[in-house]
Amino acid sequence: MEKRIELEKRGKKPGDIKELVLDNCRSTQIVGLTNEFSALESLSLINVGLTSLKGFPKLSSLKKLELSDNRISGGLNLLDSSPKLTHLNLSGNKIKDLDTLQPLKEFKNLRSLDLFNNEVTNMDNYREKVFNLIPSLRYLDGFDADDCEVDSEGDDDEVNGNEDGEGGGNEDDSEEVVSDEEDDDFLDDEPGLESVYKKSLGTVTKKIIWGKKRKKMMTKIMKKMNRKKRKRSLLSEERKENLRMQGRT
Q1: Domain 1-140 - what CATH class?
Q2: What predicted TM-score, i.e. pTM, was given to this entire model?
Q3: Taking a C-beta distance cutoff of 8 angstroms, is the pair 152, 123 a contact?
Q4: Burial letters 35-51, b for 16+ CB under 10 A, else e
Q5: Which of 58, 76, 178, 228 is deepest in the core (most CB within 10 A)?
Q6: Residues 57-65: contacts with CB within 8 Å, 24+ apart?
């Protein structure tokens, strides 16, 4: 796990990382993840092989935690250092009873919990008991307390740990569309700018033409080399045949 963490850091400082994906890195417990990841908001540890949450660091900014397809059977109290947690996925683990879930009632911001494919889901009145245990919970296994499935974009964002319902979008990243008329006005505003634009366009065109010519030249060279190769092969076969004939005489 430590090597995978180092790889996923991609040269960034731990305190600057907001999302970390460590899926399938194989480890029975958490190793190498430290309190230095103070800005981490989303952590994914799917199918790692975890049997325990021992070593889980203090991640005060963490909102979304993916722990599905592991072998966790308890120790959820070790998550209490992440009070901002809104989304917790524990599907496909070894949680057997309601007592194991008791620590989660202390999470005042927990909105979505997934326990699908855990033995605890076979308990009588399972959904009612879990909703009563965790007052802040809005969605359990993708459904609300009235058994209505998440269907709207806003609800889906909340289930996925995005409280703002913006789907991770950023208005600053949107591409500005400029019309042809605005483009013409821009060229007219600055004297000589149009000529510079045309000159640059001409340079690009020349590069494209040269690229095509170069491609044709390379094709001709390859054909010529192939012809020579075939000729050498034929001469070699002819030479071998002559040697065989001489041997017979």
Answers
A1: alpha beta
A2: 0.63
A3: no
A4: eebbbbbbbbbbbbebb
A5: 76
A6: 57/30, 57/33, 57/81, 58/82, 59/35, 60/84, 61/18, 63/87, 63/109, 63/161, 63/163, 64/160, 64/161, 65/89
Give pLDDT tens digits along the chain (249 positions).
989 999 999 999 999 999 999 999 999 999 999 999 999 999 999 999 999 999 999 999 999 999 999 999 999 999 999 999 999 999 999 999 999 999 999 999 999 999 999 999 999 999 999 999 999 999 999 999 998 987 655 555 555 555 554 444 444 444 444 444 444 444 444 444 444 444 455 555 555 555 555 556 666 666 666 666 666 666 666 666 666 666 655
Which residue reads 């192939």 in tokens? 226
Q: Which residues are CB-contacts of 113 (< 8 A; sequence separation ≥ 6)?
A: 88, 89, 90, 104, 130, 134, 137, 139, 140, 141
- Nearest CA to 120 out of 94, 141, 149 is that of 94
